[in-house]
Amino acid sequence: MKTNRTLLTVAALAAVQLFAPPLAAQDKKIETANLDAAVAANPLPAGGPTAKVISSTRAGNSELQIIRMSKIRLHHHAQEDHVVYVARGSGTARLENDAGQIESRPAKPGDIFNLPRNKKHAFERSGAEDLVLLVVATAGWKPLEDTVFHE
């Protein structure tokens, strides 16, 4: 019985350490932003890149990026897991399955994609409206160094 209480206490303390915000984050002020304003202020330039991070904000060990895009080529990240939420637009997601094959499926507002590291993925809009993706990732990762393109 004592061993069970000890294990429970250790597990509780570990959970507090794991999920407690860093001390520096506790001193930060609350910030607000507006998705529609960020999208309106950051169109993709004609003839320019097909995707860009239009806004980014950090909280503790997490970062939320707003990505506006018409196409993101097939790629993977060796060091980064991330979650993608489709906020605007519709298109196609190309995702690597467990057998290593690329499958296509529709991507529409409200869809959430859990993209583990080393799994290939791509997005492309359909129609005239750009896709707007909210991407949650580990703060401080280096996408240009960690992204491997396959096309």
TrEMBL record:
<dbReference type="InterPro" id="IPR011051">
    <property type="entry name" value="RmlC_Cupin_sf"/>
</dbReference>
<dbReference type="Pfam" id="PF07883">
    <property type="entry name" value="Cupin_2"/>
</dbReference>
<protein>
    <submittedName>
        <fullName>Cupin domain-containing protein</fullName>
    </submittedName>
</protein>
<dbReference type="InterPro" id="IPR013096">
    <property type="entry name" value="Cupin_2"/>
</dbReference>
<feature type="domain" description="Cupin type-2">
    <location>
        <begin position="73"/>
        <end position="136"/>
    </location>
</feature>
<keyword id="KW-0732">Signal</keyword>
<feature type="signal peptide">
    <location>
        <begin position="1"/>
        <end position="25"/>
    </location>
</feature>
<dbReference type="InterPro" id="IPR014710">
    <property type="entry name" value="RmlC-like_jellyroll"/>
</dbReference>
